[in-house]
Design goal:
alpha/beta, Rossmann fold, 4-stranded parallel β-sheet
Length: 106
């Protein structure tokens, strides 16, 4: 696996997207907003104001891992933004791409 994968994490409004965009512009990498990777059922729940639980997030985290692995398999580098605030979420992402680096914005 080659390329570098960064996950920019933090609470809503912490600047994940802004920092991600600045990094990708400077480095010439790709960027994906993690929220775009939610399955339709999650999007519908969020649209209706229903909080997601850990079970809802599992397929989303798996899709994030697939994206990070795809970048590595293609030798590309990228930045992905998502909250990833729970240790279990980061562990699931790391299981998919052990060399990913997390950047936590406070």
């Amino acid at each position: 696996m080659t390329g570098t994968a960064l996950v920019i994490m933090g609470v809503s409004g912490s600047g994940k997207s802004t920092v991600g965009e600045l990094l990708t512009q400077r480095l010439g990498w790709e960027m994906i907003e993690g929220d775009r990777l939610h399955p339709p059922a999650n999007v519908e729940k969020m649209r209706r104001g229903i909080p997601l639980d850990d079970a809802d997030r599992e397929p989303w985290l798996d899709t994030i891992g697939e994206q990070l692995r795809a970048w590595g398999a293609a030798g590309r580098s990228g930045v992905l933004t998502c909250s990833a605030l729970k240790r279990a979420y980061r562990a699931r992402i790391l299981a998919a791409r052990p060399d990913v680096r997390f950047v936590y914005l406070k």
